[in-house]
Amino acid sequence: MLGEGILKGLAETARNFVGSYFSAERLTTVQYPEQRIAPIEATRDFPFLVYDGADWEAGLRCVACQICEKECPPKCIYIEKSTDKKPDALGKPQFYPARFDIDISVCMSCQICVEVCPFEAIKMDTEFELSTTDRFGGLLYDRKELAKSNEHYHKIHPTEAAAVDAHLAGEKAKADSKAKAAVAAAAAKAAASAAPPAGGGV
Amino acid sequence: MIESGIETGMAGEKKPEGWNRPPVIVPDGEGDLLEVAMGPHHPSTHGVFRMDVALDGERVIRLKPVFGYLHRNHEKIAEGISYLGSMPFTDRLDYMCPLTNNWAYALAVEKLVGQAVPERAEYLRVILGELTRFQNHAGSIGFLTQEMGASGTPLMYAFREREKILDLFEWLTGARMMCNYMRFGGCRVDATADWLEATRKVVAGLPGFVDEFEQLLRGNEILMARTQGVGILRRELAINAGVTGPMLRASGVDYDIRKVDGYGIYNRFNFRVPLGDHGDVYDRFMIRLLEMRESLKILEQALKEIPGGPVMDPKAKIRGFRPKPGEAYGRIESPKGELGFYLISDGSPNPYRYRVRPPSLINLTILEDMVLGQNVADVVVIFGSVDIVLGEVDR
Amino acid sequence: MKTVEEIKAAIEAAVPGAGVEIVPNPSVSGQHSLRLEPSHAVAVATFLRDGLAFDYLSNATGVDWPDKEIAEKVKVTRTVTKTVDGVEQAAEETIEEIRKRVEPGCLEAVYHLYSVALKEGPLTVRMRTANRTDQVELPSLTPIWRSAEFQEREIFDLFGIVFTGHPDLRRLLMWDEFKDHPMRRDYVEPDDFEYEPTAHDQVLARAAAHRAAQAAPDSGQEGTGAGQ
Predict the structure, then answer these.
(1) For C190, which DSSP code?
(2) What ipTM was reported for this prediction?
(3) Which of B112, B178, B235, C86 is exposed most, by the fewest CB atoms within 10 A?
(4) Is the minimum CB–CB distance between A136 and chain C shorter than 8 Å?
């Protein structure tokens, strides 16, 4: 019969139309922004800097090694190293970024900066509703706007943050045990040199 | 009409001069030809693409494609950044299929340095590659019918399934489209058991969708009238013009790089390669539909057999990667055709020469031949059957 | 697939005087290439397509090898006149000089061939121009493999190799009036584009220099411009 193919197609669309009143799966449109989909945990939008503790300046993990700046493909990161040092989580004095700018109008969310950072200092945020009326300055984030706490990181990427915390704790434990061993060795050496040598010149 | 592979211009068969040039159509009306610039602002040109068409009434006398509107000189950018830094840019070549672009680049670099890939990573690459192929073919068919005036209904059906696949990509790689997932020596992160389970559920629902899609479209009289016998491409010309992918197989040539090169672990999977009889638009549409079913077969097998283990070679370097001097050409069967990367290394961390062999651009070589002599209404339909993405054509 | 040595032998047997040489590839990929003399390239390509069944040209691209400055130490023996004990004598002197010479670069077209009939490949074939400035012609392989049509146009556009015998050689990706060839190693980007301020000092410095250059010729006309 002429038109049979078209009628079969119309039956298909009719089934979808009527079905959308009965099955939620057939009704696929989400009325954004009144309705929102729950964000997927691994999603990545733009980078942010992680800080531990309450003070963002003191707890900032970044040591301004500039590896992320070098590896960033569209070159959207701009870092200026500080001239002084401050102690990091392991107690070692490290530089810190006097200036850390990310131009998010250039950033392409490739997350290579996260991959290459040796200090777990930069991670990907999940915020995407960032539109602003200032086309240039409004999309250039400085280190104050980029710094977010470790608690925020746990909220947006719980599994990833837990793994990072475990890794950092492991590193701290290794550093602590090394320090303790060094102290014990130094004490042993001091004790050995303090004891009078046998038959030493009297 | 499917001949054996021997009669393709091999020894002895002399082809006449100019056999692979476009035919010369003589206009039969009087007066000037009507010159139309279709594009670059055009809803049906799959991006910013222009076709300078000269018409005699409704018949196409001459067609010259013009592109370069999306040229970002990706090849020169790659000479200025490291090998790893080019990976996110490859996502943006054929932006409908970012994971297969990643795979092709990773394959070329692995060929250059002789890097081995762990088994679990190969399985993940196949799973993601076939999911990409599925959603690309669904979208391509949807766009083809959209251009014929179906007002987006089949397109939205395809996109409904595509959304499920993109959600899987976001779960695994972090981004729906610009995934940046493959690395030289494996994949960036491992897939959890939950992700594999969710993928199995999605893949279990897809054959029903393909049935639905087929019922919607295959017997449709309007579709058949507009696509059968339109835009015929004969096999010798297809091979000589470097056409690859579903377009080549619709012309009856049995050449699927997954079977020919057997890259990755494709020779472990049991799948067929559908071939066309006529080389017209309807064949290309049906080939894509059938390839969607074959992709589902591969997916079911891969999801069942995927082993445990690492997904990244522990000796592979992420930073400070300096391949020894030399060159390599690596290619895969992307959903659009043969996607190849040609790399020349001079021992420095940046490539000396980085070349993308874009299937969409090379498939466009033959657009003129297919369209000449046909009506202008067929131009968009034939062009839609080539299935191009401007990000790849222009790079 | 035949090795490059076997293919070279077959070509030399079929096309006498072809001028084929093997370019070894140090990478582990093992894809060695054959370098063709441009004068016989069309005949060799026809033999490759018809005689050896390489019916599918997959990739055609260009490579820029810029001029190289080489500094060499050369021992030079010269005859000089020396005054010894008030008497002028001719003596020989050997000194070491550092001579700098420029090895001229070239542009190269690289083709990757496969065989669909025999499911073989890849065979890499190359052709080099004489230099980068005035002798940049190479024969076009488009009459043999249609897939070279757009790719050779792109090589012409981005590198500047002129393909003789190409049916329609004009720019492909850049617009027709564009000068210069963007993929060359010595290409200088134009700075007359709209810039967006970022913290990157390179961009800022370039934009400042550009604005200074623009302000200098403009300052003479500012009076007339502002009056409108």
Answers:
(1) -
(2) 0.89
(3) C86
(4) yes
